[in-house]
Amino acid sequence: MDVDPIQDIVPPRYAIESDDSDGEEMEARATQKSPPSITVNFNGEPSHSLLILIGQAGEQYRRGIITPSSTTGSIVVDKVKVGEIQEISPSLLVVIITHELPALASNLLAKQLIQTLSPCSVELMDTYSLPIHVSSKPISTPTSPLMCLKTSSFQPAPLNLIPLAPPNIIRSFTASVLCILELRSIPGLAILLPSRFLPPRIPTEQVGPQPPPAYALEQFENQNLADANRAFSFGGTLGWDISVAGKASGFSRPQAQGDIGNGGMYL
Questions:
Q1: Which of 162, 191, 212, 235 has the most beta carbons within 10 angstroms of its beta carbon?
Q2: Are 78 and 102 in contact (CB under 8 A)?
């Protein structure tokens, strides 16, 4: 059909041409997979404070906790166990997340986790990537500073933490948790340790491997772990031993490698 170039209104597409794109869109919608299955099994009592440890940094910090604890729950995404819940004291629960999660699963898990555990405040440990970090001053390990992200309802961050500023982003489970906390006006603080590696690729559909390649074998500086422990609001009362946390895992350090995935989050 010919189109008058000087007419006031662009004619509807169907008046110009006919194609199968609408049918393709409908077919794509019909073939979309169902949302991931999220299960938070918890047999304990909700506590005042919640600590979420993510990835290798969280695992290394967890090794230093010498206060006796008991496992009170597990976290399962699409039939894969991706974490567990430990009770350190009646006032503190610790959640350990061991896998990389797709964005949708990450968001749904964050919502369900906060709903189930009902914490009054949440603190997290995660990492930021030195190779892609944008700063006015060059930073490098081992003198790299600890950084942080916090919700608006959290009290001023400890002085030894530097706020992570745009254009730097995080795109891990931490981002999902902080978003949920902000929406619910729950105080939240994420302490970010410097990592020598590029962030692992965020899986698109399935839960990522445990541990993610390369970056999972990284050993973090003892001083950074100790500084993070002091920055946690409960750090002075939690039994934590730097000599245990700093023990090497027995694996050799791999060459830095990784991919920068799409997506991200400013906060």
A1: 191
A2: no
| Size (the chain), residues | 267
Per residue in 99-153, pLDDT (tens digit) is 989 999 999 999 999 999 999 999 999 999 998 998 887 776 556 899 999 999 9
Computed over its alpha carbons, how large is the radius of gyration of the chain? 22
Q: What is the mean pLDDT of the chain?
A: 80
Residue with tokens 């910090």: 61
The DSSP 8-state label assigned to residue 214 in this structure reads: T
Residue 101: which of 52, 139, 134, 166 has the closest Cα?
Answer: 52
d(CA 199, CA 86): 27
Neighbours of 259 (CB within 10 A): 10
Q: Where are the alpha helices (DSSP H) in 151-221?
A: 173-183
Q: How many helices (H) and strands (E) does the chain have?
A: 7, 9
> Which CATH number describes the domain made up of 47-197+205-245?
3.40.50.10900
Token pair for residue 178? 């902080």
Residue indicated by tokens 């749904």: 108
Structure tokens at 204: 């698109």
Cα distance from N-terminal residue to C-terminal residue, the chain: 50
Q: In DSSP terms, which residues pair with 146 in a beta bridge? A: 161
| 225: region left, alpha or beta (phi > 0 left; psi from -120 to 50 alpha) | alpha
Provide the residue ranges of all domains of the chain, joining segments of one domain with +: 47-197+205-245
- List the beta bridge partners of residue 86: 71, 94
> Distance (Å, rounded) from C-alpha 107 to C-alpha 105?
5
| Spatial contact of 205 and 33, defined as CB atoms under 8 Å apart | yes
- CA dist., res. 79 & res. 151, Å (int): 31
